[in-house]
Specification:
Strand content: under 5%
Mean pLDDT: 80
Distance between the termini: 33 Å
CATH superfamily of the largest domain: lambda repressor-like DNA-binding domains
Radius of gyration: 17 Å
CATH class of the largest domain: Mainly Alpha
Number of domains: 2
CATH topology of the largest domain: 434 Repressor (Amino-terminal Domain)
Low-confidence stretches: none
Helix content: 55-70%
Structural class: mainly alpha
Number of helices: 8
């Protein structure tokens, strides 16, 4: 698929995530914050720990913590300690880098593109960031 088509699809689908209709319980909100701080989607995290994506969604929307047999793998995938998953301290989004996130993976793949297409990706991202900056 040409890079232009991929970029068009990315722009079209970028704002389509469903918003939760009710506030998350503290335990679920913590897990969601840790996942987002690691730069992972629910699907990516589920693949990393070998559980269905729906299980991640359930843990993030319920007060039930992840199973004890999954906690070590979950902590490793998120780049944190088990205690941080179960603890009460606020999640620091500017913490040490965890596993490679989705955006970083995309840019690592873009480096392998021909220079002309790399310039197109860079121009697209710069334009998107500028639009976001103006909207903020």
């Amino acid at each position: 698929m040409p890079i232009r088509e991929l970029l068009r699809i990315a722009v079209y689908t970028s704002g389509m995530a469903r918003r939760p209709s009710k506030q998350r319980p503290k335990q679920g909100a913590r897990l969601a914050a840790l996942r987002k701080a690691a730069g992972l989607s629910q699907t990516e995290l589920a693949k990393a720990i070998n559980v269905p994506q729906q299980t991640i969604g359930y843990w993030e929307t319920s007060a039930v913590p992840p199973r004890s047999d999954v906690l070590p793998a979950l902590a490793k995938a998120l780049g944190v300690k088990v205690e941080e998953i179960l603890g009460d301290a606020p999640v620091n989004a500017a913490r040490r880098p965890g596993p490679v996130g989705k955006l970083q993976k995309i840019f690592e793949q873009a480096v392998a593109l021909p220079r002309k297409e790399q310039d197109l990706v860079a121009k697209f991202v710069a334009t998107l960031l500028e639009q976001h900056k103006k909207a903020s």
